[in-house]
Amino acid sequence: MSTSDEDSRGALRSILPPEAVDRFLDTCNDHGWLLLGLGTVAAVSLPVLGLEAGYFMTVITEMFLFAILALSWDIVGGQTGYPSFGNMAFFGIGAYTTAILTKDFAFAFPVAFVLAGVAAVAIAAVIGAVVLRLRGHYFAIATLGVLLAAQQVSRILDITGGASGKILLQTPSGETFYFLFLAVLVVEMGVVYYLSSTRFGFVLNAIRDDEEKATAMGFNTTYYKTAAWMLAALFTGFAGGAYSLFNTFIDPQTAYNGAWNVELIAMALLGGSGTVAGPVIGAFGLHTIIEIVESYAVGWQLVLLGGAVIVTVIGFPNGVVGTLREYASEMDYYKHGGMAATNDDAEVSSDE
């Protein structure tokens, strides 16, 4: 370990529980990359093994999409502790950027897709300079205002098609979007997993736990918050940029979908916010349940979503991943003797 890494670890030990810092760093090894690689190979193999374009491919593609959105929200909401209600604003910006460039200016889709992410990041930098000065519920309300303002602007402007939206007929195949959303998700998971074991990731967690202490330790929290906000906007913009052509239609209601804005937060909480795997697991699980409800109990989707949020917050505040970690920690504790081991150690110390 380098001197700078050791210094960072030492500084973060003064903000976070020392044993948690050491355990987290020690467990961020090649196993996470191995699992990510195996999952990618499995997902890529599905079309090769016979998954054809149709209903099931569309559902899995949407799972990838929601996983991207949930993990992007978690960068700011879970890792940094700034619960945003406006992430769908960057989704809409990316969606309209691609739609306008491909239909009105004849840009090639790959170019428009990249520019969708760039546009989302640029606007996030401007908005972040204002809203990231706020904290708690003030920040949440401000981000919701950003979402509503972006939706209204899209209704007014002629270039966006106004309230009628834009119909996009010249679009790639469904299989193309399957691999595209998969690629974006894998890259995002890799980036977040890597950052979680670096100084950047630990400072974000320090901001979440106690921003004033993090500032007192000399960390420029504004820089880290803005970087996290822009990173989340980048991947959200990519998701929106691909979705407009995947859906072949975009309008203000679709681009800034309020129900999706709640869904992606519920997915992150359900799977376990503040983790890499949690939002992805939550997205896959909750979207599967929603698809089943839409097939057999149309109209109950929002009831299910509200119920999932309530049950998660009350019964599983740490989500699936957090609950499993707690259970594994307890099993490890009892495996090594539990309180008996602690008492034995205490007796030995007393005798000495």
Q: What does this molecule look like?
A:
It is found in: Cell membrane. Keywords: Cell membrane, Membrane, Transmembrane, Transmembrane helix. With 352 residues, the chain is mostly helical. It has helices spanning 3-13, 18-27, 30-48, 55-77, 88-104, 109-131, 136-156, 174-196, 199-216, 221-247, 252-255, 258-271, 277-296, 301-315, 319-335, 338-351, and strands at 166-167, 249-250. A two-stranded antiparallel sheet has the order 1-2. It is globular.
Classify the helix fraction into a percent range.
over 70%
Counting H and I runs of at least 4 residues, what is the number of helices? 16
The order of strands across the largest sheet is: 1-2
Q: By helix and strand content, what is the structural category?
A: mainly alpha
- General shape: globular
Radius of gyration, whole Å: 22 Å
Organism: Haloarcula salina
Main location: membrane
GO molecular function: branched-chain amino acid transmembrane transporter activity
Pfam families: BPD_transp_2
